[in-house]
User: What shape does this take?
Amino acid sequence: MSAVTGIGSWPGTDIRLALRIVRDVLAVQVPAGVVGVPYLPELPDRGPGAELIGRTAGLLSELPVDLQPSGWRLVDRPGRDARRTQVLMQGDLDELAEVFDGYVGPLKLQVAGPWTLAAELRVARGERVVADPGACRDLAQSLADGLARHVERVQRLVPGARLVVQVDEPSLPAVLQGRLRTSSGYGRHRAVDPEVVRRGLGEVVDAARVAVGSAPPGTPGPVAVHCCDRDVPLPLLRAAGADAVALDSTLLRAHGWESVAATVEAGTGLWAGIATPNATTARLLQPLRQAWREVGLGVGLLDGVTLTPPCGLAGVDPAAARAIHERLVAAAGALTEVAGS
Assistant: This one.
């Protein structure tokens, strides 16, 4: 069966409304033949600590943070903004427990990955963590520990959930290609060795998998790594142990689809972000189906694809976000039929 989920970010400031929409569209109203994967939305419009970096930084183990003019920074003791982050998360989890009371099924959590955190967080002197190999190792370990505790906490609140973890790595290509600017703005940080990147990401992926356990047959793998850059490094994500890779399929060029084919044939799951205009289901799926044929993938393999929006939905309004999810659910149903034909 094809599956459908969202990426994570959501418009507005009402977490209860967001959770109810996600539950209704991806859990209650999903037709037979489709696996809906509801998730805990991120609402960055609420301010610092509600966005991906601050939200994940608040989960770190024994690495306190605070918000500076340059962004989130590792500090000796947590400041006011870090405490606000934890209050927001606690409130979100309280709402999650209420809205998903009695729920049984998959439920997704999102966190920033270790290299996106290393690219965005600063050390005490103001430079990016990515410039300090020792700090990068500490950060990966801290994230692995904090994520495991976060998963355990959510599992207690929603005991019927089969948790799925999405590790967001939007900055990973910039880390690998040496595109990150130094604090002065005049230089660029050195590219990080791919093997070092693989180890750091793999540590977090492994910790997440141990925390959530194995996924039942026919449902998305327990740990997906998401990167919506045109140059998503799929071989590295596979080597890091990802059960699935999530990407924006609308950005892929020919060589990108060849890498997708190798990924699918290797048994790694694909979460394909597709454009979601107000169009027929056949039109929504046409670019994906055409690319699939051009790289020689069998139509039956479409049955294992999870459909998502191309990226997060913080830039639209709640009604549009709901409509996008509804179109994706319909498209997933059609994809299941195509795969079985």
User: Anything to note?
Assistant: DSSP finds eleven helices and ten strands in the chain.
